[in-house]
Structure formats: structure tokens, C-alpha cells
Amino acid sequence: MLLPLLLLALLLAGSGQAAARIPPTGRNDVSVVTTDIVPAAGTFHYVATDTAAAPRFVFASDAVRHVVRRKDVSTGIWQTIAGEDGKAGSRDGPIGTSLLNRPTAMCTTPLSDLVVVDSAGACVRLVTQDGMVSTLAGVCGSTGQRDGTGQSALFSDSIQSITCLANCSVLVADQANGRLRILNLHDPDCYAAAKKALARRYTARSLWAVGLVVALVAALAAAVVIHSRQLTAAGFVVWRRSGEQGGATADSEYGPLVDAAEVPDTPPLPRAEE
Ligand SMILES: *[C@@H]1O[C@H](CO)[C@@H](O)[C@H](O)[C@H]1NC(C)=O
After folding, report:
1. In angstroms, what is the span from residue 187 Cα to ligand 1's centroid?
2. Which of 44, 134, 154, 254 could make an S-S bridge to 146, C-beta 3.0–4.6 Å?
3. Ligand 1, atom 14, residue with closest C-alpha
4. Do the beta carbons of residue 125 and residue 135 sit within 8 Å?
5. Cα–Cα distance between 252 and 108 in angstroms, integer?
6. Considering Cα of 10, then 13, then 19, then 21, what sign does the dihedral take?
7. What pLDDT, in 10s, does the model give residues 217-240?
8. Are 187 and 168 within 8 A, CB to CB?
9. DSSP SS3 for 2
10. Which parts of this chain are annotated as the region Disordered (predicted)?
11. Which atom of ligand 1 is nearest to 166's Cα?
12. Is residue 99 part of a domain?
């Protein structure tokens, strides 16, 4: 009797240890699929998407060809939206006229604008959804370490990574300067988009809360109704207020018993009106 129990305990302890070595179920359950192959002599350096729940666009920077390309997810078609293939530069402007200088790290603002590091240019560029390129911070072509607004700030030409925050600021890892920099976008449209995104989150949460309260109240009401039915059925005297007319004169008017026929021993009260 004792031996099988001991064996079972050992078995359980052993399986517990084995389970502890395996990562939690699902965390590392992944499949890998190639969706795109880089165009000739190019690179896929960094990728980003717009901030929609179901992104419409995938962006990829190509530091070798000096461009940022955009893929329309629904059609699968790639288009160069910033820079000119194979030509380095720092010119701002719309699609087809702008130039980039080894674009690497990217992220998307709450407005779905693209923030792009011009790694060889030592500056940070902004690409709007329709491909308008402007210089956000730093002086393209000048390296340095200086804080300030827009073009008065300077960066090293080895910015390694950036991340766009939900509050319209951008964190920048300025590697050669050994500094973490932060860009605060002063764009009312971005703030509005950020607020909207936050509001969506809170609306979803408060809808859950409202739903929960409604469900609780409904459950309570159902419980009260069922409870009062049971009381009536059990022969308890249940009075129901009837003929409420409002006003000061309508004092203590009580109607007949509920289901009076089922309670023959108790005569109904005379109605007070008339
Ligand atoms: C956004 O959040 C970061 C990190 O908390 C903060 O440093 C930055 O000042 C914030 N930006 C704005 C515009 O509030």
C-alpha cells in the first residue's frame, strides 16, 4: 500500500521538475515564414508599421540603397516613399525628390508618421504617411553633441536605435556620444492622436466596467423577482402598492393582495380612492 504511494509521489515530483525546465506553454511556440525578399543589392535594415490595430503599411529602411520603402499590406506592392535609390543626400521634400543618407532605425508616431534615423547624416528625419520628408532634429551632415530645438541639436553619426513613445516623444540611443536622447515632438496633431489612442484604451476598459455593473444589477433584480415569487407561492402576505397618483394626497394607498385568490383567508383591503 505504502510502496505504490511512494512511487506515485516520486513520479509526480519528477514530472514537476521536468515541467519546470520547459518554458511556459505557448511562449516560445512560433512559426517563421518569409514574406518578402529584398530588392537587388539592397537591405532590409529596420521595419515598422503604421499604428492602426490592423496595419495597412509595412515600412522598411534600406541603408545600402538610401531609401525607405512602404508595402501596402492589402496588395503586397512595395513603393519607395522616401529617398532615391542608390543616392545619398539630405534633401527634404515630397516622394521622388527627397534624399536620405543610410536610413536605419525607424519607428512610428501615434500619428503614424515615420521617424527615420539618417545614420550617416547624423540627423533624424520625419516621413509623413504620404511621403513628405522633413528634418526633425540635428543638422544632416554635421556631427556633434548638443541639445536644443530642431536643427540646433546635434547627434553622432552612430545612432543605433530609436523608439517612439505613446506620448509623442522619441527615445534615441546616440551611441558614439554615449547618451540617451529624447525628442519631444511639439505637434498638436500628434498629441490629439495620442489622446485618442489613450481614450480608446480607457473606453474599452470602462465599457467592461459598465457591462459588469449592468450584469450585477440584472442578477440582483432577477434574484429579487425570483425570491418574491417564492414568498408569494409559500403563502406569505405580499402587498403591492398600486394606484400611485403622486402628490401629497396620495398617502398610503395599498391595493389588493397579490394573487389574492391563492390566499382566501385574508380579505383584500378596501381601496382608498373615491
Ligand atoms: C513622454 O514620456 C517620457 C518617458 O516617461 C518622458 O521623458 C517625456 O518627457 C514625455 N513627453 C511628453 C511630451 O510628455
Report:
1. 14
2. 154
3. 167
4. yes
5. 68
6. negative
7. 999 999 888 888 776 655 554 445
8. yes
9. helix
10. 247-274
11. 1
12. yes
pTM for this entry:
0.68
Which of 121, 117, 182, 183 minimizes the C-alpha distance to 157? Answer: 121
The protein residue whose alpha carbon is closest to atom 11 in ligand 1 is 169
**Which amino acid does the sequence have at 82?**
A
Whichever domain contains 92, its CATH number is 2.120.10.30
Please report whether residue 232 resides in a domain.
Answer: no
The answer to whether the Cα torsion of 241, 242, 245, 250 is positive or negative is: negative
268 Cβ contact partners less than 8 Å away, ≥ 6 residues apart: 256, 257, 260
What is the total count of domains within the chain? 1
Report how far residue 139's alpha carbon sits from residue 174's, in angstroms, rounded to the nearest whole number: 14
Cα 250 from Cα 243, distance rounded (Å): 9
* Residue 237, domain member (yes or no): no
Instruction: Provide the 10 A C-beta neighbour count for residue 1.
Output: 5
pLDDT computed for residue 131 by the predictor: 93
Q: Which amino acid is at 165?
A: L
Residue 195 counted as domain residue: no
Do 79 and 67 meet the contact criterion of CB atoms below 8 Å apart?
no
Which residues lie with the beta carbon below 6 Å from any ligand 1 atom? Answer: 165, 167-169, 182, 184
Q: Residue 135 belongs to what domain range? A: 35-186
Cell of 169: 516623444
Q: How many Cβ atoms are within 10 Å of 176's Cβ, its own excluded?
A: 14
Cell 511639439: give the residue: 186
| Ligand 1 atom index nearest CA of 168 | 13
Cell 509623413 sits on residue: 128
Could you read off the pLDDT of 129-140 as tens digits, one per residue? 889 999 999 999
**145 CA to centre of ligand 1 in angstroms:** 21
H-run or E-run covering 14: helix 2-21
Q: How far is the CA of 170 from the centre of ligand 1 (A)?
A: 9
